[in-house]
Design goal:
This protein is mostly helical. The protein has a single domain, classed as Serine Threonine Protein Phosphatase 5, Tetratricopeptide repeat. Helices cover about 75% and strands about 0% of the residues. Helix 4 runs antiparallel to helix 5. The longest helix is centred in the C-terminal third of the chain and has 31 residues. It is globular. About 40% of the residues are buried.
Length: about 180
Amino acid sequence: MAEETKKANAGPLGLLGFGLTTVLLNIHNVGAFELNIMIAAMGFAVGGLAQIIAGTIEFRNGNTFGGTAFTAYGLFWWSLVLIWWNPLALEAVNHVALGCYLLAWGVFTAFMFIGALKHNNITKIVFGSLTLLFVMLAIGDFAQSSVIGTIAGAIGIFCGLSAFYSAMGQIINNEYGKRIFPL
């Protein structure tokens, strides 16, 4: 009889990529510093690539929810970096177009939140706060309101820290074989 190979949980990698990148972008959104190459690089490499890798592994492990979430949000980060970079020199995005883009992601995330209701509490918090973040960012762009953008930034920092907590909790709980961090 062949020995069963233990499959690694790719979730913490995806959550780490999402969490760290989301925190850094939203520190910018609250006005601490300007949009810069550090955020774009994090969006491309850690928010984008790390989540796409995690999503691919989750699909391979039979986890449709995790695979869809990580792959989609990894591609979100890549698309956002392309919007900022605009390598094709297309017409720059305006507030209405960016609001529509963010609202579309908010609708997708609201449906993912419904799926997250079958998961642990921290996953519910991540997807609930992410839904609120996308909606607030969209409203901020539609209204061209820096105040709403700052509020969204605070929500985004909370959301990113929640995802980071989930990643670290899963890693530490797995390493010790017991619940150290409640999820």
